Each structure stands twice: as structure tokens, then as C-alpha cells.
Amino acid sequence: MADSRPTIFADGVVEAQVAHGVARITLAVTGADGKAQPCGMLCVPVTQLPSLVNGMGNLLKQIEERVRAQVAQQQQAPAPAAAPEAAPAPSGAFRFDG
């Protein structure tokens, strides 16, 4: 079955406000002029906001751990004399389940 959920890319937040028990976070994307442009809104019940923030914090910790492990692995590996052609390029992508 095809996934029909919309995907929004955001690299910032324009504003956030709370009204009637709902946090409304206006997401932003940096435009060609370097200024933030609104691209969508994330609406979360205030009662669920701590859970969402904790989940994002845990995701960030997992990413940091993965990056540290990759850096340590690269530092331990001896530098090859010539780049082997058969070596796969690192994808930089991984999945985390909260």
C-alpha cells in the first residue's frame, strides 16, 4: 500500500504559539535569499508536547552516538594506499525507531 502522508521538509521554525491547548509551530525553509519562509504548521496538543520533545531529544542522542561511532571507526581504520573500487560508499542514512 502506498504511503499517502504528506512530507514537509523544514530547516527551521518561524514562530510557535499556544492557543486552546494546542501548540502551533510554524515550520520554515530557508529561501534562496537566505530568509526563512513558512512551509507548514505542526499542531500538537500541549499535553503531548513533552512526549514529542523527548522523542526528538532521544533521536538526536541516537544520531550523535551513531556519528561518534562512525568517526571512531574511521579513525581506527588504517588509511588505504589507494581507494579500493569495490568498497561501498557510506550512505549516511539510517532508521531509528522511537
For the largest sheet, list the strands in their spatial order. 1-2-3
- Specify the overall morphology: elongated
The percentage helix is 25-40%
Output the CATH topology of one domain: Nuclear Transport Factor 2, Chain: A
Strand element count: 3
Radius of gyration computed on alpha carbons: 19 Å
Query: How confident is the prediction overall: mean pLDDT?
Result: 86
Name the CATH class of one domain. Answer: Alpha Beta
Number of helical regions: 1
Q: Identify low-pLDDT runs.
A: none
Residue fraction in strands: 25-35%
Architecture of one domain, CATH level 2?
A: Roll
Biggest sheet: strands, sense, closure? Answer: 3 strands, antiparallel
Structural class by secondary-structure content: alpha+beta
List the helices and strands in order: EEEH
- Measured between the Cα atoms of the first and last residue, the distance is 23 Å
Notes on the structure:
The chain is of the alpha+beta class. It has a domain at 12-74: Nuclear Transport Factor 2, Chain: A. Helices cover 29% and strands 28% of the residues. It has one helix and three strands; from the N terminus they run E-E-E-H. The protein has one helix spanning 49-76, and strands at residues 12-19, 22-30, 36-45. A three-stranded antiparallel β-sheet has the order 1-2-3, with no helix packed on it. It is elongated. The relative contact order is 0.11.
List keywords for this structure.
alpha+beta; three-stranded antiparallel beta sheet; 98 residues; Nuclear Transport Factor 2, Chain: A
Give a short overview:
By secondary structure, the chain is α+β, with helices and mostly antiparallel strands. The protein has a domain at 12-74: Nuclear Transport Factor 2, Chain: A (Roll).
